[in-house]
């Protein structure tokens, strides 16, 4: 998936140019400073998943197209077999697998997130909507604004994703399912 991850900025640029949207207009339309957006599209900056969804919405396409280069195909049900989702390493020690990448017109995004406790935690993020996290394995520290929660296997949390938030493993490699609704 690393090769696909490196291709995302090129896919975004190509589609933006086909639609004749300038870099300045694109940045303004999704509410980002021009320099930040240009960094995402050039590949100089890592694109947060929430920004990827904003970009895909502005371009009138599914985020799966930007992630994989292919359109989702299912509209009744989409099965994702073990270890068969679209896996993306977002930061060292933080990677996720899209569990519904092949379903058209998703209104939420379920992801399996893998955390490595030996790596620095990912920076806090904000995005529209709400988020649900369910710990499948290990222990996960969830920071939301100024509060911190330690969740263990079987624990879950539901929160306002407009607040700065982030997750990190506590002591052991950990996995959690997150469902993001924009």
Describe what this molecule looks like in 3D.
- The chain has helices spanning 2-18, 23-29, 34-42, 49-59, 63-68, and strands at residues 86-91, 94-98, 109-115, 130-137, 139-144, 147-152, 156-160, 165-169, 174-181.
- The longest helix has 17 residues, at 2-18.
- The strands form 2 sheets. The protein has a 6-stranded antiparallel beta sheet. A 3-stranded antiparallel beta sheet has the order 6-5-8, with no helix packed on it.
- The radius of gyration is 16 Å and the shape is globular.
- The protein is 27% helix and 31% strand.
- With 182 residues, the protein is of the alpha+beta class.
> Strands of the biggest beta sheet: in what spatial order?
1-2-3-9-4-7
How many structurally independent domains? 2
Report the helical percentage. 25-40%
Oligomer state equals single chain
Q: Enumerate how many helices there are, as a single number.
A: 5
CATH topology of the largest domain: Jelly Rolls
Question: How far apart are the first and last residues' alpha carbons, in Å?
Answer: 24 Å
Main pleated-sheet profile: 6 strands, antiparallel
Query: What CATH architecture label of the largest domain applies?
Result: Sandwich
Class of the largest domain, according to the CATH hierarchy? Mainly Beta
Please state the average pLDDT score. 89
Gyration radius (Cα, Å) is: 16 Å
Q: How do the SSEs run, as a string of H and E?
A: HHHHHEEEEEEEEE
Q: Low-confidence segments, ≥5 residues, pLDDT <50?
A: none
Query: What is the CATH superfamily classification of the largest domain?
Result: Jelly Rolls
In terms of DSSP E residues, the strand content is 25-35%
Class per helix and strand makeup: alpha+beta
Q: Give the total of beta strands.
A: 9
The gross shape turns out to be globular
């Amino acid at each position: 998936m690393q090769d696909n991850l490196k291709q995302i900025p090129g896919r975004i640029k190509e589609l933006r140019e086909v639609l004749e949207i300038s870099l300045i207009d694109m940045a303004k339309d999704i509410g980002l400073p021009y320099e930040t957006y240009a960094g995402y599209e050039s590949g100089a900056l890592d694109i947060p998943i929430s920004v990827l969804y904003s970009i895909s919405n502005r371009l009138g396409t599914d985020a799966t197209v930007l992630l994989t280069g292919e359109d989702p195909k299912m509209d009744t049900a989409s099965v994702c077999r073990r270890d068969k989702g679209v896996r993306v390493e977002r930061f060292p020690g933080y990677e996720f697998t899209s569990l519904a990448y092949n379903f058209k017109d998703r209104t939420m995004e379920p992801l399996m997130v893998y955390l490595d406790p030996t790596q620095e935690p990912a920076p806090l993020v904000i995005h529209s909507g709400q988020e649900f996290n369910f710990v499948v394995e290990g222990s996960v520290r969830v920071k939301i604004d100024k509060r911190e929660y330690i969740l263990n296997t079987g624990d879950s949390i539901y929160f306002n994703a407009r607040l700065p938030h982030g997750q990190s493993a506590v002591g052991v490699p950990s996995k959690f399912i997150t469902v993001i609704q924009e």
